[in-house]
Amino acid sequence: MERHYQGAVELAAGIAAGRYSAQELLEMFLDRIGRFNPTLNAIVVFDTDAARERAKAADAARRAGTSWGPLHGVPITVKESFDLAGFPSTFGRGERRNHRAARDALAVERLKAAGAVVMGKTNVPKDLSDWQAFNVIYGATVNPWDHARTPGGSSGGASAALAAGLAALELGSDIGGSIRMPAHYCGIYGHKPSYGIVPMRGHAPADDMAAIDILVAGPLARRAADLEVALEVIAGADPEEEGGWRLDLPAEPRRRFRDFRIAVVTDDATFRVDADTRAALGAIADLLEREGARVVRDPKLPMPSHDMWLLYLTLLRSAMSSALSDADVAHHARLAAAAGAEAMDYASVIARAYTLSHRDWLKANDARQLLRRLWRAFFAEHDLVLAPMSATTAFPHVRGIAKEDQTMMVDGARRLASDTYFWIGIPALVPQLPATTVPAGIARDGLPIGIQIIGPEYRDRRCLALARLLETAHRGFVPPPLYP
């Protein structure tokens, strides 16, 4: 595979072996960015001068026999919402055009400490709250597989940059599928870590904001091994926080397919997915069985699907309510009052969630803790769950239509786009559950399909172990035809 499509770990090995320099690698990516980014609009903030100085220093260190770490000299980008000293973190908000970060986000610091060369930042939707990537400051990012389609969101610029070979690794965040959906739509890898294991310092509109429920940070990449290395780099306690905890993720002993007990969820009677997605999961289930894994197809999940959808949206929109203006909150309060407590359409559900009383939030949180216990019992019988990431491949760009009115065509039937929150919410509802999105196939429309590997609490390495096995035995990253 062409060098610009190789993995970050592979590129670091090439630098270490002297096959090429960090400066040569950086200039290769900068050349591709100059050629392709004007159309993709994936990378929207550039730190080119500092990147060149950093690459030069990396080469000098290598000649002196010094290694900075597993990403020594590798050019990467980070999501726009992560602070990069001296550059804006706008979150897609026009009023934040002039923001400048005083210091790097902790996850960015850790990537740099591991040797990475940060070239710039990638595009996001306003408030990181869309499965697209457009805003009034930077405009829209397109999907490298089909420019008429979304690359996903909110880490949309990240996924497009990786899929088109513009960077070697990315740092994203996920509260409503924002790592996993773009990975699915662009045919790459993404990992949503267990909640709390990657510190979020430097990923907020204000320095003193409390940690946001459900929100996590994690890597996106073109190789499963890159996810493993990046997670090891960015995970661990924030040294500036008081307390005595340290991260000690369990090691994963499973090395072969036949070591796994895997539940494969191919569809849901309420939240349907298309035939191509079902076929992709079926093919993986067949492979797992041939290789000796114990496979259970479409098991009963710990809670009815509609109940999980409702609970996830309640907690998700409640967690995101602090970003709303007073006028927005008042608007949703009027909608909730008019709809009544029994209304279960998406607009009514999120209106109630945005204006939830603290007592009602506590009840929802108790329900989540019950579900957490039920998942633990489920994972006593199954090592991992494979599930769809979305009902379909990447959808066409949508403008001027409220999310509650957006639809998707699923096998010829028009269904609400908000149904997708069920699939997003399976691991995010209990945010301790890690989930890795991996390439699973190509649909009849020529677009990539990704599926998610969901594991028990803090078993991130288990998800990543199966991702590596599937990459070798089933399917890995395939470059989009538009970007050779």
* Annotated CATH topology of the largest domain: Amidase signature (AS) enzymes
Termini separation comes to 10 Å
Total count of helical runs of at least 4 residues: 14
Low-confidence stretches: none
SSE string? HHEHEHEEEHEHEEHEHEHHHHEEEHEEH
CATH level 1 class label of the largest domain:
Alpha Beta
CATH homologous group name of the largest domain: Amidase signature (AS) domain
Query: Architecture of the largest domain, CATH level 2?
Result: Alpha-Beta Complex
Radius of gyration: 21 Å
Mean pLDDT: 97
Biggest sheet features: 11 strands, mixed
Strand order of the largest sheet: 1-3-2-6-8-7-14-15-11-9-10
Into how many domains do the coordinates divide? 2
* Shape, principal axes of CA atoms: globular
Number of strands: 15
Q: Give the quaternary arrangement of the chains.
A: single chain
What is the helical fraction, as a range of percent? 25-40%
How much strand? 5-15%
From the helix content, strand content and strand pairing, which structural class follows? alpha/beta
Notes on the protein architecture:
- The chain has 484 residues and is of the alpha/beta class.
- It has two domains: 3-255 and 439-473, Amidase signature (AS) enzymes; 305-363, no CATH class.
- The protein is built from 14 helices and 15 strands.
- The protein has an eleven-stranded mixed beta sheet, with helices on both faces.
- Helix 8 (275-290) links the parallel strand 9 (261-264) and strand 10 (294-297).
- Helix 9 packs across helix 11 and helix 9 crosses helix 12 (358-381).
- The protein is globular.
- It starts with 7 loop residues before the first helix and ends in an 11-residue tail after the last helix.
- The mean pLDDT is 97.
